[in-house]
# Entry
Amino acid sequence: MQDIATRVWNHKWKIDPIVRSLIDTDFYKLLMCQSVFRNKPDTTVTFSLINRTQSVPLAKLIDEGELREQLDHIRTLTLRRGESTWLRGNTFYGQRQMFTPAFMDWFEALRLPPYHLERVGDQYELTFEGAWPEVMLWEIPALAVIMELRSRAVLKDLGRFELQVLYARAMTRVWEKVERLKSLPDLRLADFGTRRRHSFLWQDWCVQALTEGLGGSFTGTSNCLIAKNRDLEAIGTNAHELPMVYAALTRDDAALARAPYDVLADWHEEHSGNLRIILPDTYGTEGFLERAPDWLAGWTGIRIDSGDPATGAETAIRWWKARGEDPTEKLVIFSDGLDVEKIEQLHAQFAGRVRVSFGWGTLLTNDFRGLVGDRLNPFSLVCKAVAADGRPTVKLSDNPRKAMGPAAEVERYKRVFGVGEQVEREVVV
Amino acid sequence: MQDIATRVWNHKWKIDPIVRSLIDTDFYKLLMCQSVFRNKPDTTVTFSLINRTQSVPLAKLIDEGELREQLDHIRTLTLRRGESTWLRGNTFYGQRQMFTPAFMDWFEALRLPPYHLERVGDQYELTFEGAWPEVMLWEIPALAVIMELRSRAVLKDLGRFELQVLYARAMTRVWEKVERLKSLPDLRLADFGTRRRHSFLWQDWCVQALTEGLGGSFTGTSNCLIAKNRDLEAIGTNAHELPMVYAALTRDDAALARAPYDVLADWHEEHSGNLRIILPDTYGTEGFLERAPDWLAGWTGIRIDSGDPATGAETAIRWWKARGEDPTEKLVIFSDGLDVEKIEQLHAQFAGRVRVSFGWGTLLTNDFRGLVGDRLNPFSLVCKAVAADGRPTVKLSDNPRKAMGPAAEVERYKRVFGVGEQVEREVVV
# Structure
């Protein structure tokens, strides 16, 4: 017997909104947003969507009207009362009132600023321009919307039982990964999979699978909404956008060379403990650590987000030792292109030598590889700050395939930061 | 835990189609269609939507784009294999092969012809023009679509629990009616509620409630799809459109006066037993019966569809007696604006004197009166043949409020059929 009321309810929705909350975003975005709100509130930035996997023709797959409906829906969102209460009152990284009343007042009044969308060939040009603290909050929902619309475009062709089997297989795959990870002693792992997830519900399911399967080894999720709903820790610290924008704002080479450290000096003022995590690869890890002031060696840990992760971690260990720090007390967070094999390898190599932690992203929340041919395979979509106060941003990374910025500026940055030959690595996600 | 596959499936539909099958229509439409296909295949007709309840501003309530999507969807439908098998092989009114191979071949190849839709003030002008056997099949789906879009427009404003309560109340109401009807001895009642139903699922639920509650007193449903799916009798005979079009095609008063009997002469050729039901009110019941040929008195019964039903039935009884027929062997089918009180009254007055049967329509399948203020109250929407081969049709009815046609033609018909003063009765549905 059909439940008519439920069915009518389900079909009343004009659209099935993908992002339904302003806190359906990564925790580090909010931390960084508060830092920017305090330190650089008047900076104007441009964020731009970049599909690094050009073989996925997003504009052919995703209807422009549907994309606009989803983005327009996000612009209707405001912080709900319960969400605000949670941000104001919850303990994050052991600390109460992580978010200041001034920031929360601002956030409660916020609606996301306009977007600019244009189809260019088979890709979309999606950009956001305006005040940094506002525009930066578009990154995660914009990515999540495009990823999920792409999933839906592929799922459209599947029958009811094909869908049932598809999800059954994907669930089995996640669960088999969990079973393997269970056997790693003292594993610490968090979900970092919001931005390139298959769908919101799927991320939510994956998080529940990790909670159930990994117990205390699962440290939490970067997704604030899921952390709130599922009573988990919200996880995350800072990202490349801070040094990229700080660097773009500088007026000479000397200031540019200082910019990455200025970012962390500001962060040092604001945060302590496990939130003091260095992200060293924006303009090359080696040079960054060599020239780093001593107070940075006192920070809690480092996040390895590009290049060969083992090499990056060994570099960090050598650096800590050279600065008289005990690596076994330091935290190394791996967060680049992880899957279960890589996690096992890195765990085997570094467990005991440092405190190891994993931020597992796309291949946790979007591993449908091979389940509908290659049509649901994850791909490398990012949404980055490309300009600040009218000046282009540059990223060098430890993997030149992840580099971005105008060629002349890239050369200048390489010179200033002393970056030489780099090894190219395939960018899966 | 969400069933993600089911949820994805539910949200994949661009629209939630209201009419999903060519046999989601009244059985008598198919009987008449076969008759027209045999006797008047080349007649061109125009069907037109008429909202007799002008206080319901359909064009304000229903989005034109959504209406077009629903109508366009109906034009994509063709007879499914199982539906064709059922029509070809099922027993209707005790007879096998009710539908001839020639008709079924034609029906299998059919798609409904184009429609013309225009907003005029707060109402829609919706017309269908073309070959009679094709155009006539638009009537029921067109009505059902508009009725259900109107329901949806009202339901749009309701929350999830309001919907739950709404349907709980409506179900309670139907069930209380069933409980009352249960006590009527030898009741015979069928569902005639397709065209003005609240929704397809709701009609389906009502039919199941009658099946469960009334047992053998529930004789079946006019809806072919529900009859097929629920293994019930498909019920229905013929309607006003036959005499209206036959009459419009005549060239002089003498032929006009004969037209209603010509219709039944054709029907007499094709059908026997319980399908030989006179519908006498198109141009006035009194005159029709007075001038009827004797072979018509030998028919099985009569359907009372306008005017005071008790008066109509008494008239029929007197007529049968005058023609030497035994009324207790005759069937009287009441089908106009019935609800449970009226059914009880008519049952009390006529049970035993004739074989009584009820065709319960709108107040079975669309009684949400008072449940959302008056916003879900049923209203009087019809879709009628308004012209045949370029000549206007006329209906007089036993209730002048149901009359239609150009004034001069109405006067001519009244003269030809000897219709004098008539009593106006409110048209509820």
Remarks:
- The mean pLDDT of chain B is 95.
- The longest strand of chain B covers residues 123-131.
